[in-house]
Amino acid sequence: MISIEGVTYSYGDGINALDGIDLEVKNSELLAIVGENGAGKTTLVKHLNGLLKPQRGRVMVEGIDTKETTVATLAKKVGLVFQNPDHMLFAETVEKELSFALTNFGLPPEEIARRVEWALIEFRLSNYRDRSPFTLSGGEKKRVSLASVLCYDPQIIVLDEPTTGQDSLQKTRLASTLTKLNRQGKTVVVVTHDIEFVADFIPRVVVMSRGKIIADGPTEEILVRKDVMEASSILPPQLAELSWKLGLESPSIKAEIIIEEIKQMLRGGQK
Amino acid sequence: MKVFKAFEYRRGSTILHRIDPRSKLVYLILFASLTVYFTKPLALFIIFLSFLPMVYVGKISTRWKQSLRGSLFFIAFIFIFNFVPTAYYSGNLLDAAVSAIAMSLRFLNLISVFSIFFLTTSPEDLTQSMVQLKIPYDYALTFNMAMRFVPTLSREAQYIMDAQRSRGLEMEKGNFVSRIRNYIPILIPLIISSFRRAELVADAMESRAFGASKKRTSLHLLRMGRNDLLFVLAATGSALALFVLNVLL
């Protein structure tokens, strides 16, 4: 459970990167945070493991005030994967890269070996076990960076732009990994620009713009709201756009629903 | 990382910004040499005081103070590593303190004088003045770009630290040796991404036809004016005065 109450943060340039954020994330929720560049998404997620501490307001993670503990303590509960894998990878082999966090948290060797094995298989990296992470392609590096955090099994998983540089097959696999972890009871927060990914796989969406939350709710309701999509400079999902153009009474992001509505229109003729 | 603020140029229009970079270079060399040459804390402190009007005239006090605050750690480090061994071997605490203070002031002065130079000199002007001093353009540009990427590098170091701390890295954990080892996960990504960036920049420059013409000409030439010469005279004069003062002290 994460609760963010009235959080304000500024980098000292006179602009509030976060401007009074209130957000509650329940256990085992799966949600996305979307918004234009510079909306404050990354600043917000850095508050979740204490990298940034709120200048005003309060962030509580599993009942702990982030101001009163260290990043290392929070990192065990909150696994945060950043956008750029090049900022993370340093080890000689993929295997060592994956065991870095596990060693930092002082897990016993057998446990480390078991979890590394799980991550290698889950992210289809077994073939690269002994390769240097620097020789991998962009998409593979991205998977190593995801695996290197997910392997220590944090209760809350926060991913900043996990789909960049991934082809559609990898995206679907990522979605199924996230859905699986979510079903096992993990809380998953995904920060992304990839609105189709959100529309297809993520049930709750939070829309940010200029340091504020401008909408929060079930994905199929929020992503079809033209005002919200425009205010946050998000390219709406194609199906939402199609629904608007068709002038459907209840626009949707689900193909089946739109097909049903079109059928209704055709059967009923001009209303 | 605040210490990098010492080199972040922002456009300004004070008299100090408008002085020819070559004149400021004379000032920089004179005062840096004096700082290195002087050994008496009082003389070094007087040099430090002489920077205050420069900082005021150039309106760079905020970033100058930030860079000093950022270098406090190094100054403390320099002080301790000069004081402890000298005190231990000579047994004279006063002498040890005096020489340690002198070393710390020397560092403070060097940071200040370089800071005054770089905060008031635009990178383009600096490159241009190096070219006019007959330094080959390639070297001048290399130097300019190295300066240009300092803030980028410090931002990148911050990203990397955030990422590794999120994976449970504790920088301040363990004894001296393991603390140094803690920097490996920061330094490797930093170095590799710097190499990669260098390659990208080289590609970008070549695709914009860098080096296509052998003979470069400049649209704007730097010309030494009356103010620039006066500045050189004033700098030389005060350097001489300081030199004499140091002998008398």
Automatic annotation (TrEMBL), chain A:
Protein name: ABC transporter domain-containing protein
Keywords: ATP-binding, Cell membrane, Membrane, Nucleotide-binding, Translocase, Transport
Key word ATP-binding present: yes
GO cellular component: ATP-binding cassette (ABC) transporter complex
Higher taxonomy: Archaea, Thermoproteota, Methanosuratincolia, Candidatus Methanomethylicales, Candidatus Methanomethylicaceae
Source superkingdom: Archaea
A molecular function (GO) term: ATP hydrolysis activity
Organism: Methanosuratincola subterraneus
Pfam family, one: ABC_tran
UniProtKB/TrEMBL annotation, chain B:
Segments traversing the membrane: 25-58, 70-90, 96-120, 229-248
Alphabetized UniProt keyword annotations: Membrane, Transmembrane, Transmembrane helix
GO cellular component, one term: plasma membrane
The keyword Transmembrane is assigned to this record: yes
One Pfam family cited in the UniProt record for this chain: CbiQ
Location relative to the cell: Membrane
InterPro entries: ABC/ECF_trnsptr_transmembrane
Membrane topology value: Multi-pass membrane protein
Full protein name: Energy-coupling factor transporter transmembrane protein EcfT
